[in-house]
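Lecture notes, continued. The same structure-token format from the folding unit now serves as the input rather than the output. Read the line below as a description of shape only.
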């Protein structure tokens, strides 16, 4: 694409023009970019750079619930504390919470070879059941079975957390009206908590902007299950966007 001009927009969450909302999204106030001829084939926008630390716990409010039945009774909800766990810490916390909330006495063990978890509560019975914001994907549970005295997860545990995030950017004018289809970029996430996420697209994916002015970016981050990827409040997020006029 030949271009007559381009401009870069630098966005840092430490900037006073960036407001972090309670839901983990960001609203960025920028100087009005006048695009008077945008509708005639003018401007396009692309993400050039994205950097932040991965400060989202693998066990967070979207992955920290367990739901059990015991001895044919009703469903009980268990909440695991948010955190970045080792396998042994995770298994220990699950056992603690099961014995705190449930009426059975549970023994929870971890096999370091298979990386699976085994639960036992003989002579009583129990079962895991489905529910919202569960930790089952972290625990290795994808198949639910009837109540029994013991149960071994069908898959290894996975405490590496999110594998990628989707950056969804809405472009807005002064009254916060979204003016175009959201721009979405997929960014791979390092395996471990508190590692730096760095993304430089090999090829810039420019999206045409069908608007005359641009006043706000609304930036939302989603994990690989399309749940909010909420960085810790003090995490600095840096982005560089490029907009250009094609000829």
């Amino acid at each position: 694409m030949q271009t007559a001009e381009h401009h870069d927009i630098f966005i840092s969450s430490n900037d006073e023009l960036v407001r972090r909302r309670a839901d983990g999204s960001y609203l960025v106030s920028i100087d009005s970019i006048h695009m008077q001829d945008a509708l005639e084939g003018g401007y396009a926008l692309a993400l050039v750079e994205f950097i932040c630390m991965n400060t989202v716990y693998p066990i967070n409010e979207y992955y920290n619930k367990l739901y059990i039945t015991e001895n044919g009774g009703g469903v009980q909800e268990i909440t695991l504390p948010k955190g970045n766990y080792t396998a042994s810490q995770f298994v220990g916390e699950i056992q603690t919470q099961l014995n705190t909330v449930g009426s059975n006495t549970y023994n929870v063990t971890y096999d370091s070879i298979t990386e699976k978890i085994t639960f036992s509560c003989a002579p009583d019975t129990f079962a895991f059941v489905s529910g919202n914001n569960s930790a089952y994907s972290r625990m290795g549970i994808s198949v639910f079975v009837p109540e029994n005295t013991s149960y071994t997860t069908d898959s290894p545990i996975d405490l590496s957390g999110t594998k990628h995030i989707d950056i969804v950017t809405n472009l807005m004018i002064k009254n916060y009206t979204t003016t175009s289809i959201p721009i979405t970029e997929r960014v791979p996430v390092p395996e471990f908590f508190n590692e730096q996420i760095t993304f430089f697209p090999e090829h810039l994916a420019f999206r045409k902007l069908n608007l005359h002015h641009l006043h706000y970016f609304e930036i939302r981050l989603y994990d690989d299950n399309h749940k909010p990827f909420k960085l810790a409040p003090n995490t600095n997020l840096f982005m560089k966007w490029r907009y250009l006029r094609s000829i």
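Point for the exam: The chain has two helices and 16 strands.
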